[in-house]
Amino acid sequence: xxxxxxxxxxxxxxxxxxxxxxxxxxxxxxxxxxxxxxxxxxxxxxxxxxxxxxxxxxxxxxxxxxxxxxxxxxxxxxxxxxxxxxxxxxxxxxxxxxxxxxxxxxxxxxxxxxxxxxxxxxxxxxxxxxxxxxxxxxxxxxxxxxxxxxxxxxxxxxxxxxxxxxxxxxxxxxxxxxxxxxxxxxxxxxxxxxxxxxxxxxxxxxxxxxxxxxxxxxxxxxxxxxxxxxxxxxxxxxxxxxxxxxxxxxxxxxxxxxxxxxxxxxxxxxxxxxxxxxxxxxxxxxxxxxxxxxxxxxxxxxxxxxxxxxxxxxxxxxxxxxxxxxxxxxxxxxxxxxxxxxxxxxxxxxxxxxxxxxxxxxxxxxxxxxxxxxxxxxxxxxxxxxxxxxxxxxxxxxxxxxxxxxxxxxx
Length: 411
Hints:
Strand content: 5-15%
């Protein structure tokens, strides 16, 4: 029995040294988010898409500006000598049913929508960073809780061994305490595994190659009325993006309706090089082209109907986004409220559990309770410490989520 207990104690001592934060770097949430922004492929992809839209807008703007080109044309025909013509050509479209101007304004709306989409992606990334940050904080705290519990188990076993020597306790009580110690050791190893996984999630988000210690701080929670958060949610980036999408499709619909209008195109050519030059050849010419659509086999109407359908779809999606935002705010508001109440309740229970452990140990020395009662009280205290850690972390995450779903700016 003594040899068995000695082996167990050596094993526990080794396991308790497996986890250390001495080589880890302390970092706060803002730094984690900044690193995640630099590392995120999603943000980078959306920014590139924004650049693509800016290039498309420049291309559309060029359609309303005159075009000038220089051309050389050489022709050799049968029984005709080589004929070469070099000329400057200018083209300008005076009127096209305002389609080009409408397209430019529509593209501007699409750019703004894409920009709002980038902001929304940043907010989602921030929530990912918040969740990963506080989950790691909780994982490290739980590791510490189990290390503390193992130390208490060892002290309990030492006390029982002393009592066995003077005949006040039984060997079976020592074995029972050792069994509890081994169970706590297994849970301790699980907590270390959870901490390692949490570290890997942080590394994936930030791109760092070192372990971190999240700094603790209190969340800045403003206990406003629900109406305050609902009003703020109406200006969320994702909703603003949906509004701009609807504006974009509205302009596209207007542009498609204008396809039934005529278009006027002018062109001018100047010929500084004509070889050989004859008296019939002119040095310049100007032409005006009028294009009036009469029959397009239903193509123009189909395009108009398609754009109208896209417009209605975007309006439906906007309405859905507003309703979803309101629902998310209401849920987050209630979650924060009850989370705070739950945390306070667990704190009260923890105070009672600490007193219970003290009383159970005193009663055991007086022979009023069994060793199992003491171990149960210690386990209850352990579970409450873990529950409190999880509740405090969950509360902080929920507070940040309420800020995000209500559209509060990221600081």
